[in-house]
Design brief:
Shape: globular
Order of helices and strands: EHEHEHEHEHHH
Strand order of the largest sheet: 2-1-3-5-4
Strand content: 15-25%
CATH class: Alpha Beta
Number of strands: 5
CATH superfamily: Sugar-phosphate isomerase, RpiB/LacA/LacB
CATH architecture: 3-Layer(aba) Sandwich
Oligomer: single chain
Radius of gyration: 14 Å
Number of domains: 1
Distance between the termini: 28 Å
Largest sheet: 5 strands, parallel
CATH topology: Ribose 5-phosphate Isomerase B, Chain: A
Length: 149
Amino acid sequence: MKIYLGADHKGFHMKEKVFAYLAKHGYDVEDVGDSELDPNDDFPEFAQLAALKVIGDDGKDPRAILLCGGGQGMAMAANRFRGIRASVVWDAFEAKMTRNDNDSNILCLPSRILEDEEAEWRGIIETWLSTPFADAARFKRRNAKIDEL
């Protein structure tokens, strides 16, 4: 599974930690930016880069993890792209549910809440990466309706 990782200045330091964690655990991870701490960068750029990478990736189950202060901005920007189901997650239960029910392919993490809670964000990421989509007819139907919008 390929994982694209992006963050604005508010999530930059946490992104560096997440990248190291994912690489150490053998994940194929690609950093889509920002490549340096820039207080003037804008989260929509990195959400777009990650979303387009996920959409254009022909591999098995490509995903992205995006970080900004609250996670909401990244999710709003990423969800503008058909085929993207980005969700803001703050605990392992929500990580499981957004994968199981919604087949989330982009995880948006709020660095203001989670940056100093390494055990918490590790649990969220591992749960999100390891939870399969339930593939229930009602969930597939709902995802198809999202893509029709």
